[in-house]
Specification:
Layout: H1 4-7, H2 18-23, E1 30-31, E2 42-48, E3 51-56, E4 60-61, E5 65-70, H3 76-89, E6 94-98, H4 103-117, H5 121-124, E7 128-132, H6 142-156, E8 160-164, H7 177-190, E9 194-200, H8 217-221, E10 224-232, H9 236-242, E11 249-258, E12 262-263, E13 268-272, E14 278-283, H10 284-287
Parallel strand pairs: 5-9, 5-10, 6-7, 6-8, 8-9
Antiparallel strand pairs: 1-4, 2-3, 2-12, 10-11, 11-13, 13-14
Helix pairs in contact: 3-4
Length: 292
Amino acid sequence: MAHGHRDREPLVESVQSLGEAAAGAPELEPVPTGVEGLDELFFVTTWRDGKPVQKPLGGLPRYAVMQVTGVADTGKSLMAEQFAVACAARGEACAFVTLESPAAFTALGLKTRARAMGVDFAVVEERIALLDGATHPALHDLPTLLSTLAYTIKTFKARAVVIDSLTGLYEAREVLARDVVRPIFNFLKKWRQTALLISQKRGGHEALTAEAAGGYAVGHILDGSFVLAKQTILSPQQAKLFKAPLGETIRLFRIDGCRLCGHDTSTHILEITPTGLVRIGPKLSELQGPEK
C-alpha cells in the first residue's frame, strides 16, 4: 500500500540554501514606538575583543509583527495609537484597522494622542489611514480585510499596521484563532510591515502570561508579545513594593519574546499619564532598592 508522502511531487521551489535565504534578509533597524521607556528595551549584541556587548536598538525591529495583549483598561489601544502617531510624524504612513470603535471615535483618540505627544495633527492626519471594520462588518471577513489592507498599503505607501483588535476577528470562535492569525502574519511579512496587533485577554488568565482570547496560538505565531496587566494593592507588602496605597491599581508591562532581536525580559511598571499617554517606568527590581 503506497504512503501518501510518496505520491506527492516535491515542492522544489520551497528549498533554498542558507546563503540564498540570508541574501534576502532585511537589515536590522529600529522603528521608534512613541512610547517613553519602550524603545530602549530592545537591543542588538555586538562583539568587542571577543566579548558580547549589548547596544540599544532604539525601537521595535523593522518588520516585527507584535501582539499587544492584556485585560481591559491596561493601555493597549493607547500604546497602539502612540505608535501610529509616531510613525506618521516621521513620515511613515500607518494603516490602522479599527474593528471595535467606529473610525470617528478612533480618530478622536489619535488626535488626543498627537496633542499629548506634541505632534501637529495636520502633519499626521493624511498619513494614518483608518479601515473602519466597526461600521463596515464586511472587513471581519479575512479575505476582504487582507484585500483592503493591500489596497491601503499601496495607496498610502504604508510601512506600519495596527489592528485593534485582532480578537474581534475570531470572537466567540477562539478555536479558529490560528486560522485567522497565521494568514495575517504571513500577509504582513509579505508586505514588509511593522505591526502591532491588539488581543484582548480573558480576565481569568494569569496576569503576566501572553495567553489571550485565542489561546497560545496568537503569541506563538507572531514575532513576540507585549503583555500588559493590572494589579490591585491588597497587602502592606505590595504597598511597600509598589510605593502605592492599599486599594490602588497599578499596571505592569513585560516583553514576552521577540524573534528578531534581543529584549529586556524584566517586568516594568506601566503608567498612564494624566494626558493619556502610556509610559514604561522602572523595573520592579529597581523599586525594591539595593540589597542590604
